[in-house]
Each structure stands twice: as C-alpha cells, then as structure tokens.
Amino acid sequence: MLTNRWFKFLLLLLAVPAITVGQGSGAQSIVTPRMRVIVDNDFSGDPDGLFQLAHLLLSPSVDVRAIVGSHLRVGDGFDNSTTQADNAAKKAQELVQVMGVKLNIPIIAGSNTAMPNDSTPVKSEAVKFIIREALRTDTQLPLYVLCGAGLTETASALLTNPQIANKLTLVWIGGPEYTDLALPPPNYSTPEYNLNIDIAAARAVFNRAAVPIWQIPRNAYRQALLPYSLLQLKVKPQGKTGKYLSYVLERLMTRLQQYKLNIGETYVLGDSPLVLLTALQSSFEADPSSSEYVLRMSPRITPQGTYEYNHTGRQIRVYNRLDIQLMFTDFFAKLELMNRP
C-alpha cells in the first residue's frame, strides 16, 4: 500500500500532460539514470559476461561509467594467454561496436595478474578509475561496482584508498554456497570458480574492507538458466547484437562437444543477475524487491577459498533466490526494441 506522501505524488503526476514514447532506440527515453555503475568482467572468458554487458548497455536507468576487462585464473581454458584482461577489454569493445552504441566512457583493461597477497594491491588504470568515481562530489547518484569474475581491481582500489568503502556498493557474482542455505551441486569445484580467480582479492574484500557487499553465490547464479530454444527464438533473430551473442554461445557449445562434454539444452548466464539487482530495482522504495536475500555476518575467506565464521564481520546481503523471469523477459524485450525500425 502506498503512503499518503506517495499517493499525493502520484496525483501530481497524473496532472502532467501525457508524454508520447516512440518505438525503436528512443522507446525508453522517458527513463533516466538513477544510479552509476562500473562493470568489471572477464569478457574473454565465459560468454555470459557479454550477455550481461549487452543487457546493461540497453538499460536506461543506469549510467555506465566504465567497462573493465578483467583477468581469469592462470591457464584458464577459456583464455590461457598472459593478456587475459587486455583480451577482455577488446571483447567488450567488439560487442559495443556490434551493438552500434555510442559510448563516451572508457573501456579499460585491468591487471593481467592476480594480487600477490591480500594486503598488496595491483596498480592499473581501472583501480585509479574506481577510486576517482567513488570520490566524486558532483553527483548524488549511488555507485555500484558490478563484478562478474574476480575481485582484483575492486580489492586493489579498496586497499589503495580505504575511504571509498562507504561510497559504493559491490555486487559480486561469486563464492560457494552457504551450506545452511543451499547445498553445492554434484561434482562441484572448490574453490568456487570466480573466487578462485583471485583468492587474495576476495580475502581483502571480505576480511579487510568495510565495503557493502551484495553477494550472489553459486547456488543463486546457477538459477539463471537460458534454454537453447529461447536463444534461438528470442535472441538470435534480433539484429546484429542477437546474432553476435548467439554466435559466441553456439561456438562454445560446439567447442565443448569436441571435448565430449554434453551440457544439455540450457546455459547458465550467471552474470546477468548483475543487471537484475541494479537496473531492475523497484520503482518506489528502490530495491531488488522481486529477489530474495538474507543478511548475515560477512564470513572470513581462508587461503583455501572456503568460509570461516567471523563474529566481528559486518552484515552483507547474500542472495538466494533471483527473479529470473523478470531478468530474461526484460532482456528479450530490450533486444527487440533495439532492433525495431
């Protein structure tokens, strides 16, 4: 139920003349940004990061301030080079060009290596940018740092300038299950994939920093299942962007078949919740109101990448159920709107 204050506000809005909203790329011009985001992902790795980036760039309620390409674990099968972050930035640039989006923001390569330990930051332009953006005083829009891979750049920024901890919210796809909330999947990997990219960075963020954290652990991000049927029906027909995204995913599926890996007919777009929890927050009392989380004490992360109880930790959000229907329906609609004449 709306409060009297909101009810009066709505009455005032109803007195304003209607605004006609057109089709195509201008269809959502009535929506304006209400948050700033920096997106940090391993775009040369799992293609779910490219889906997430495309969705975010089509979301008018977010002001994307920078795109950071981040590294994978050494020898990762997706990209076993020594220039993983550079390659990630190039893949992000490639997607932006395919989409035809005009961006006046930097696409930055982060560090190509993990932190040497949990107290020594890496130095990169991405780290400098996070600090500068967090310290801005010319805007009231809240800042979210969206991480779909390791935490190297965010951890390094927090270690370099601890004062930024209360000036941003970290939304992170990563970490294993909390066993009182969910059990791990069959044949699960340990440490969890994203945490294992840079365990030292995760330890710096969870054990040493005071930054607010919205965590989407493995049991939650595995809910983001895209059926191959919907890829063909809702993504592939949608212009150059749809064809590009379908191509990178189908190419991976073909590659996996060559290694006798049968992944069935769904794919986990595990990074897309980064968009769900930011761009798709509720209208009034803004929050990701259709997804569910618990508040718990931030655990300590061990050198082995497991959780330890930390009675002195601050509270963090741990998401355990995501509104996948809202997330995918919005993505499909925005792709279609983008490709209308």
TrEMBL record:
Record's keyword annotation contains Protein biosynthesis: no
Pfam families assigned to the protein according to its UniProt record, in alphabetical order: IU_nuc_hydro (PF01156)
Molecular-function GO term, any one: hydrolase activity, hydrolyzing N-glycosyl compounds
Lineage of producing organism: Bacteria, Pseudomonadati, Bacteroidota, Cytophagia, Cytophagales
Residue ranges of domain Inosine/uridine-preferring nucleoside hydrolase in the record: 37-282
Keywords: Hydrolase
Annotated source species: Spirosoma linguale (strain ATCC 33905 / DSM 74 / LMG 10896 / Claus 1)
Name this protein carries in UniProt: Inosine/uridine-preferring nucleoside hydrolase
